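Internal QA ticket QA-208
Title: Verify multi-chain structure generation after dependency bump
Assignee: T.L.

Test input:
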Amino acid sequence: MTDTNLLTEEQAIELFTFLVAAARTQLDDPCSYASMRLLTAAEKLRDFITAGVSPEAQLLLDSTVEKTEYAQIIMNDTESYTAALDELCEMVARYLVARSDLAGGPSP
Amino acid sequence: MSQHTLDVIKSRRVIRTMTDQPVAREQLEQILEAARWAPTGGNQRIHRFVAVQSPTLLRLLRMVSPGMFQQPQAVILICIDWKKVAANQFPATDRGPYVDLGAAMQTMMLAAHSLGLGSGPVTSFSKAAVRVILNLPERLSPELMVCLGYPAAPGKQLPMRSKKKVTWQSLTDWDRYEE
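Actual output:
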C-alpha cells in the first residue's frame, strides 16, 4: 500500500462535483441510471488513482476496465448487468481477501 | 426530400467519443443558423442558444453533467426563455416549448453531421450549476446540451447499448391502432 495522496485536489473536486451533480440529476433521471452513475464515478476514481497505487492494486484496477465498460453497454439487460456487477464485486472481494490475513487459508 | 437528406438522417449517430480536434467557430455558426430554421410552435422563438467553446467552461460543464460521456470541443446549450413563453400567453403546462426544443436539437445534430461533426445530446446535468457557470438570468432555464466534436474512429466509439431491432413498421400503426 502506498501512503502518498492518490488524488490531486483538482481530481478530488471533480469527483466530488460529479457525485453531487448526480445526486441531483438522479431525481429526474430513470431509477436505473443511479447504478450507472455510481459505476461511472468508480471508473473516474479508478482512472485518477491507477498510476499511484501499488502494483497489486494496479493489477486489480486494470482488470476491471473491460468489465466496467461491458457493464455500461449492457445495462438495459438487467440480468446480464446484474451478473457483470456481481463479477466486479467478486473481483474486488478476491483482491481484499488476498491482501488480508485471510489469504493464508482457513484457521486451524 | 432528396436522397442526400435521407442519407444524412439515416447515417447520423449519437457520438459519445470525440477527438481533441477543435471545432471552428464558423461551423458552430452554421449549426446555429440551421437551428434558427427549425420549426417552432406559433412561429414563436422561445429558445435561447448558448454556444460554448472556452476549454475552461467546457470542463466545468462536464464536471456538473453526469450524463456527458463525451469530451466535446464545443457545446450548444438550448434554454427555454420563460419570459417569452409567458409573453406569448402559452399556459405554463404547455409542452410546446419542449417539442420545439427537440426540433432544435435534431436540426442541430443533422447540421453537425452534414458538416462532418459528431454530436450527442445531454440532459443529465445540474441546471442550478449550469446556471451559475454560464451566468444565466432567471428567465432562462437550461434544458439540453448538444455536445459537438469530431467523432473518434469507429473502433473507439462506445458500442450502442443492446436493444431490440427497430424498424419503422415496429414503430407505426396504419390508420387504426391494432393490438
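Spot checks passed. Residues 96-114 of chain B form the longest helix (19 residues).
Status: verified.
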